[in-house]
């Protein structure tokens, strides 16, 4: 099966600019996650979708971060305006409908550098 | 609050040496436990998982992990490492029925041929 697709692979922007990341999960996976992985740390959940609804966005900095999954398939994560501390790898993951006991499948991530 | 501790940040071993990576978690309830691996330039991949039953679980590529409930630990082991095991290893925990998967900070393993 095709894996989780993410684009772009790399992005360099200046602080206060905006940026958007795209994710296409594995076909049939109802649950989609966005994680932020800062260098030297483990991935941290930003937001979780079940189909097109938000399940958990408690760790999402909503003053600058937003995410949507309008048709319950692919998703975009946006940062506006970006700060230096947003430099990280942004990982998208998906899992099948029986999410509680299903492992996550990760994409390759988007490495964001904010200068 | 849930947390995961991986005390080894970087481990360097020679080929054929035995491996044990520590993972301790903090969570007040039933947990699901995972080890993920990230090979250089690749995405995170599931190595093995524990939900219930036999606390000794076997994963891919000869890896295994043992869940010791009394110690809140889920250490990863491999009897004989290969150069191709060079990667970063992440322990993760999720409360049974919960949404969020909490990751440790990762352990970088370098295997010298």
What's this, in brief?
The complex is a heterodimer of chains A (115) and B (113). With 115 residues, chain A is an all-beta fold. Chain A has no helices and eleven strands.
Tell me what the structure shows:
Chain A has no helices and 11 strands. Helix content of chain A is 0%, strand content 48%. In chain A, a hairpin with a 2-residue loop joins strand 5 and strand 6. Chain B has no helices and 12 strands. In chain B, strands 2, 5, 6, 10, 11 and 12 form a 6-stranded mixed beta sheet that branches. The chains are: A mainly beta (115), B mainly beta (113). Chains A and B meet through strand 5 and strand 10 of A and strand 5, strand 6 and strand 11 of B.
What is the topological layout?
The complex is a heterodimer of chains A (115) and B (113).
Chain A: E1 5-7, E2 10-13, E3 19-24, E4 31-37, E5 44-50, E6 53-56, E7 65-68, E8 75-79, E9 88-95, E10 105-106, E11 110-114
Parallel strand pairs in A: 2-11
Antiparallel strand pairs in A: 1-3, 3-8, 4-5, 4-9, 5-6, 7-8, 9-10, 9-11
Chain B: E1 3-5, E2 10-14, E3 19-21, E4 24-26, E5 31-38, E6 45-50, E7 56-58, E8 64-68, E9 73-78, E10 87-95, E11 102-103, E12 107-112
Parallel strand pairs in B: 2-12
Antiparallel strand pairs in B: 1-4, 3-9, 5-6, 5-10, 7-8, 8-9, 10-11, 10-12
